[in-house]
Tryptophan synthase beta chain-like PALP domain-containing protein (Sunxiuqinia dokdonensis), 316 residues
Amino acid sequence: MILKLPEFQDIQEAHELIKGQVHRTPVLTSQSINEMTGGKLFFKCENFQKVGAFKFRGASNAVLSLGKNQLLKGVCTHSSGNHAAALALAARMRGIPAYVVMPDNAPAIKKKAVESYGGRITYCQPTLESREKTLLEIADKTGAKEIHPYNNFQVICGQGTAAKELIEDSGNFDIILCPVGGGGLLSGTAISARALNPNGLMIAAEPEGADDAYRSFHAKMLVPSINPKTIADGLLTSVGELNFRIIQRKTDEIVTVSDRAIIRAMRMIWERMKIIVEPSAAVPLAAILENKIDVNGKRVGIILSGGNVDLENLPF
Protein backbone atom coordinates (compact mmCIF):
# COMPACT_ATOMS: atom_id res chain seq x y z
CA MET A 1 0.00 0.00 0.00
CA ILE A 2 1.43 3.39 -1.01
CA LEU A 3 1.02 5.89 1.81
CA LYS A 4 0.30 9.45 0.75
CA LEU A 5 2.85 11.81 2.21
CA PRO A 6 1.70 15.15 3.65
CA GLU A 7 2.67 18.29 1.75
CA PHE A 8 2.92 21.91 2.90
CA GLN A 9 -0.60 22.64 1.67
CA ASP A 10 -1.86 20.00 4.13
CA ILE A 11 -0.05 21.82 6.96
CA GLN A 12 -1.59 25.13 5.88
CA GLU A 13 -5.05 23.51 5.98
CA ALA A 14 -4.31 22.00 9.39
CA HIS A 15 -3.23 25.41 10.71
CA GLU A 16 -6.47 26.99 9.51
CA LEU A 17 -8.45 24.22 11.21
CA ILE A 18 -6.70 24.31 14.61
CA LYS A 19 -5.73 27.97 15.01
CA GLY A 20 -8.78 28.79 17.13
CA GLN A 21 -7.93 25.96 19.52
CA VAL A 22 -4.12 25.98 19.93
CA HIS A 23 -1.87 28.70 21.32
CA ARG A 24 0.35 30.60 18.89
CA THR A 25 3.29 30.16 21.22
CA PRO A 26 5.92 32.89 21.68
CA VAL A 27 9.43 32.89 20.22
CA LEU A 28 12.04 33.83 22.85
CA THR A 29 15.72 34.73 22.61
CA SER A 30 18.50 34.88 25.19
CA GLN A 31 21.41 37.30 24.87
CA SER A 32 23.56 35.23 27.24
CA ILE A 33 22.92 31.94 25.38
CA ASN A 34 23.71 33.74 22.09
CA GLU A 35 27.02 34.94 23.55
CA MET A 36 27.89 31.43 24.79
CA THR A 37 27.11 29.75 21.46
CA GLY A 38 28.10 32.45 18.97
CA GLY A 39 24.79 32.16 17.14
CA LYS A 40 21.46 33.98 17.15
CA LEU A 41 19.06 31.42 18.59
CA PHE A 42 15.26 31.73 18.42
CA PHE A 43 13.33 29.36 20.68
CA LYS A 44 9.76 28.42 19.68
CA CYS A 45 8.20 27.77 23.10
CA GLU A 46 5.89 24.78 22.76
CA ASN A 47 6.33 24.31 26.51
CA PHE A 48 3.69 27.08 26.65
CA GLN A 49 1.29 25.10 24.44
CA LYS A 50 -1.89 23.59 25.91
CA VAL A 51 -1.01 20.37 27.81
CA GLY A 52 2.55 21.73 27.89
CA ALA A 53 3.74 20.26 24.58
CA PHE A 54 3.58 20.53 20.78
CA LYS A 55 1.57 17.28 20.78
CA PHE A 56 -1.66 19.23 21.22
CA ARG A 57 -1.31 20.55 17.66
CA GLY A 58 -1.34 17.09 16.05
CA ALA A 59 -4.02 15.72 18.37
CA SER A 60 -6.25 18.72 17.66
CA ASN A 61 -5.88 18.35 13.90
CA ALA A 62 -6.63 14.62 14.07
CA VAL A 63 -9.76 15.12 16.21
CA LEU A 64 -11.05 18.14 14.26
CA SER A 65 -10.60 16.20 10.98
CA LEU A 66 -12.93 13.36 12.04
CA GLY A 67 -16.14 12.79 10.09
CA LYS A 68 -19.55 13.03 11.79
CA ASN A 69 -20.06 9.26 12.00
CA GLN A 70 -16.73 8.74 13.73
CA LEU A 71 -17.33 11.48 16.30
CA LEU A 72 -19.92 9.51 18.23
CA LYS A 73 -17.52 6.64 18.88
CA GLY A 74 -14.57 8.75 19.92
CA VAL A 75 -10.84 8.20 19.62
CA CYS A 76 -8.26 5.90 21.20
CA THR A 77 -4.50 5.62 21.49
CA HIS A 78 -1.71 4.06 23.51
CA SER A 79 0.71 6.51 25.07
CA SER A 80 2.46 7.02 28.37
CA GLY A 81 3.12 10.69 27.80
CA ASN A 82 2.19 13.97 26.21
CA HIS A 83 0.16 12.52 23.32
CA ALA A 84 -2.23 10.83 25.77
CA ALA A 85 -2.96 14.13 27.52
CA ALA A 86 -3.16 16.02 24.22
CA LEU A 87 -5.66 13.60 22.69
CA ALA A 88 -7.77 13.55 25.88
CA LEU A 89 -8.04 17.36 25.88
CA ALA A 90 -8.67 17.63 22.12
CA ALA A 91 -11.45 15.03 22.45
CA ARG A 92 -12.99 16.76 25.46
CA MET A 93 -13.03 20.08 23.57
CA ARG A 94 -14.99 18.32 20.81
CA GLY A 95 -17.29 16.56 23.30
CA ILE A 96 -16.23 13.01 22.41
CA PRO A 97 -14.67 10.19 24.46
CA ALA A 98 -10.94 9.44 24.41
CA TYR A 99 -9.79 5.93 25.42
CA VAL A 100 -6.15 5.84 26.44
CA VAL A 101 -4.07 2.71 27.03
CA MET A 102 -1.20 3.46 29.41
CA PRO A 103 1.49 1.17 30.82
CA ASP A 104 0.92 0.63 34.53
CA ASN A 105 4.38 2.03 35.30
CA ALA A 106 3.72 5.38 33.58
CA PRO A 107 4.71 8.39 35.72
CA ALA A 108 1.98 9.38 38.18
CA ILE A 109 2.10 12.96 36.89
CA LYS A 110 1.23 11.73 33.36
CA LYS A 111 -1.65 9.56 34.64
CA LYS A 112 -3.06 12.55 36.53
CA ALA A 113 -2.83 14.76 33.46
CA VAL A 114 -4.76 12.30 31.27
CA GLU A 115 -7.43 11.86 33.94
CA SER A 116 -7.78 15.62 34.44
CA TYR A 117 -8.51 16.05 30.71
CA GLY A 118 -11.22 13.37 30.84
CA GLY A 119 -9.29 10.52 29.22
CA ARG A 120 -10.63 7.02 30.00
CA ILE A 121 -7.53 5.08 30.99
CA THR A 122 -6.97 1.33 30.68
CA TYR A 123 -3.71 0.12 32.19
CA CYS A 124 -1.58 -2.62 30.62
CA GLN A 125 1.82 -4.27 31.00
CA PRO A 126 4.73 -1.96 30.09
CA THR A 127 5.51 -3.67 26.76
CA LEU A 128 4.69 -2.56 23.24
CA GLU A 129 2.97 -5.90 22.60
CA SER A 130 0.68 -5.44 25.61
CA ARG A 131 -0.07 -1.83 24.66
CA GLU A 132 -1.02 -2.74 21.07
CA LYS A 133 -3.08 -5.78 22.11
CA THR A 134 -5.02 -3.80 24.73
CA LEU A 135 -5.64 -0.96 22.29
CA LEU A 136 -6.94 -3.40 19.67
CA GLU A 137 -9.42 -4.83 22.20
CA ILE A 138 -10.67 -1.34 23.14
CA ALA A 139 -11.00 -0.26 19.50
CA ASP A 140 -12.99 -3.45 18.75
CA LYS A 141 -15.26 -2.94 21.74
CA THR A 142 -15.92 0.81 21.34
CA GLY A 143 -15.46 1.46 17.62
CA ALA A 144 -13.17 4.37 18.57
CA LYS A 145 -10.70 5.51 15.93
CA GLU A 146 -7.03 5.00 16.72
CA ILE A 147 -4.95 8.17 16.60
CA HIS A 148 -1.30 7.12 16.51
CA PRO A 149 1.05 9.50 18.38
CA TYR A 150 3.25 10.18 15.33
CA ASN A 151 2.76 7.70 12.44
CA ASN A 152 -0.42 9.48 11.35
CA PHE A 153 -1.03 11.87 8.44
CA GLN A 154 -3.18 14.39 10.36
CA VAL A 155 -0.90 14.34 13.41
CA ILE A 156 2.16 15.13 11.26
CA CYS A 157 0.31 18.04 9.61
CA GLY A 158 -0.65 19.45 13.00
CA GLN A 159 2.90 19.21 14.33
CA GLY A 160 4.21 21.04 11.27
CA THR A 161 2.28 24.18 12.25
CA ALA A 162 4.80 25.03 15.00
CA ALA A 163 7.64 25.54 12.50
CA LYS A 164 5.28 27.41 10.17
CA GLU A 165 4.56 29.91 12.96
CA LEU A 166 8.24 30.14 13.91
CA ILE A 167 9.29 31.14 10.38
CA GLU A 168 6.31 33.48 9.90
CA ASP A 169 7.03 35.26 13.20
CA SER A 170 10.84 35.40 13.12
CA GLY A 171 11.91 35.30 9.46
CA ASN A 172 14.31 32.95 7.70
CA PHE A 173 16.97 30.82 9.36
CA ASP A 174 20.32 29.33 8.40
CA ILE A 175 19.41 26.24 10.46
CA ILE A 176 16.18 24.88 11.97
CA LEU A 177 16.59 22.37 14.80
CA CYS A 178 14.18 20.07 16.60
CA PRO A 179 14.40 16.87 18.64
CA VAL A 180 13.41 13.50 17.17
CA GLY A 181 11.74 10.50 18.85
CA GLY A 182 8.93 8.93 16.84
CA GLY A 183 9.39 11.58 14.16
CA GLY A 184 6.03 13.38 14.24
CA LEU A 185 7.55 16.74 15.10
CA LEU A 186 10.57 16.32 12.80
CA SER A 187 8.57 15.21 9.76
CA GLY A 188 6.06 18.06 10.13
CA THR A 189 8.82 20.60 10.86
CA ALA A 190 10.83 19.46 7.84
CA ILE A 191 7.86 19.91 5.49
CA SER A 192 7.28 23.48 6.72
CA ALA A 193 11.00 24.28 6.71
CA ARG A 194 11.50 23.09 3.13
CA ALA A 195 8.52 25.15 1.93
CA LEU A 196 9.13 28.40 3.84
CA ASN A 197 12.89 28.29 4.52
CA PRO A 198 14.29 26.45 1.48
CA ASN A 199 17.86 27.77 1.74
CA GLY A 200 18.33 26.73 5.39
CA LEU A 201 19.47 23.42 6.82
CA MET A 202 16.98 21.12 8.60
CA ILE A 203 18.75 19.22 11.38
CA ALA A 204 17.39 16.98 14.14
CA ALA A 205 19.02 15.99 17.43
CA GLU A 206 18.58 12.73 19.30
CA PRO A 207 19.97 11.21 22.53
CA GLU A 208 22.92 8.82 22.09
CA GLY A 209 21.09 6.23 24.18
CA ALA A 210 18.03 6.25 21.87
CA ASP A 211 19.63 6.80 18.47
CA ASP A 212 17.41 4.78 16.12
CA ALA A 213 16.52 7.82 13.97
CA TYR A 214 20.23 8.62 13.56
CA ARG A 215 21.04 5.00 12.63
CA SER A 216 18.01 4.72 10.33
CA PHE A 217 18.86 8.01 8.58
CA HIS A 218 22.44 6.91 7.85
CA ALA A 219 21.51 3.32 6.93
CA LYS A 220 18.71 4.64 4.66
CA MET A 221 16.36 2.05 6.17
CA LEU A 222 14.36 1.76 9.39
CA VAL A 223 16.45 0.46 12.27
CA PRO A 224 14.23 -0.23 15.30
CA SER A 225 15.05 1.11 18.74
CA ILE A 226 16.10 -1.68 21.11
CA ASN A 227 16.17 -1.00 24.84
CA PRO A 228 16.71 2.77 24.62
CA LYS A 229 18.08 4.51 27.70
CA THR A 230 18.08 8.27 28.08
CA ILE A 231 16.93 10.98 30.44
CA ALA A 232 14.89 12.39 27.51
CA ASP A 233 11.84 10.21 28.19
CA GLY A 234 9.83 11.80 25.35
CA LEU A 235 12.28 10.44 22.75
CA LEU A 236 12.28 6.71 23.52
CA THR A 237 10.03 5.52 20.69
CA SER A 238 11.16 4.14 17.33
CA VAL A 239 10.65 6.32 14.25
CA GLY A 240 7.38 5.68 12.40
CA GLU A 241 7.28 4.45 8.80
CA LEU A 242 5.42 7.46 7.37
CA ASN A 243 7.63 9.81 9.40
CA PHE A 244 10.82 8.16 8.19
CA ARG A 245 9.88 8.51 4.53
CA ILE A 246 9.45 12.27 5.02
CA ILE A 247 12.61 12.58 7.15
CA GLN A 248 14.69 10.80 4.46
CA ARG A 249 13.53 13.26 1.82
CA LYS A 250 13.53 16.52 3.75
CA THR A 251 16.12 16.37 6.57
CA ASP A 252 19.77 17.30 6.03
CA GLU A 253 21.29 15.66 9.10
CA ILE A 254 20.55 13.95 12.42
CA VAL A 255 23.09 14.24 15.24
CA THR A 256 23.27 12.56 18.65
CA VAL A 257 24.03 14.04 22.07
CA SER A 258 24.99 12.73 25.51
CA ASP A 259 22.63 12.77 28.48
CA ARG A 260 25.20 14.93 30.26
CA ALA A 261 24.84 17.61 27.57
CA ILE A 262 21.03 17.32 27.68
CA ILE A 263 21.04 18.02 31.43
CA ARG A 264 23.45 20.94 30.96
CA ALA A 265 21.27 22.42 28.19
CA MET A 266 18.07 21.94 30.21
CA ARG A 267 19.61 23.69 33.20
CA MET A 268 20.89 26.52 30.99
CA ILE A 269 17.39 27.16 29.62
CA TRP A 270 15.90 27.14 33.14
CA GLU A 271 18.59 29.47 34.52
CA ARG A 272 19.11 31.86 31.61
CA MET A 273 15.60 32.02 30.13
CA LYS A 274 13.60 31.43 33.33
CA ILE A 275 11.32 28.90 31.65
CA ILE A 276 10.59 25.23 32.37
CA VAL A 277 11.48 22.69 29.69
CA GLU A 278 11.64 18.91 29.86
CA PRO A 279 14.84 17.01 28.94
CA SER A 280 13.57 16.16 25.43
CA ALA A 281 13.14 19.87 24.64
CA ALA A 282 16.76 20.60 25.60
CA VAL A 283 18.23 18.09 23.11
CA PRO A 284 18.72 20.59 20.20
CA LEU A 285 20.57 23.08 22.43
CA ALA A 286 22.64 20.16 23.78
CA ALA A 287 23.75 19.44 20.18
CA ILE A 288 25.01 23.03 19.92
CA LEU A 289 26.77 22.87 23.30
CA GLU A 290 28.52 19.61 22.28
CA ASN A 291 29.66 21.26 19.03
CA LYS A 292 27.74 18.76 16.91
CA ILE A 293 26.32 21.72 14.97
CA ASP A 294 28.24 24.90 14.10
CA VAL A 295 25.99 27.90 14.76
CA ASN A 296 28.65 30.62 14.85
CA GLY A 297 27.28 33.78 13.22
CA LYS A 298 24.12 31.93 12.13
CA ARG A 299 20.40 32.47 12.70
CA VAL A 300 19.02 29.29 14.25
CA GLY A 301 15.37 28.38 14.91
CA ILE A 302 14.86 25.81 17.68
CA ILE A 303 11.60 24.09 18.63
CA LEU A 304 11.34 23.64 22.41
CA SER A 305 9.07 20.62 22.31
CA GLY A 306 7.54 20.70 25.81
CA GLY A 307 7.74 21.48 29.50
CA ASN A 308 6.21 18.49 31.28
CA VAL A 309 8.78 17.56 33.88
CA ASP A 310 8.44 15.82 37.23
CA LEU A 311 9.49 18.51 39.68
CA GLU A 312 10.18 15.86 42.34
CA ASN A 313 12.86 14.30 40.14
CA LEU A 314 14.90 17.05 38.53
CA PRO A 315 18.21 15.84 37.01
CA PHE A 316 20.17 18.76 38.45
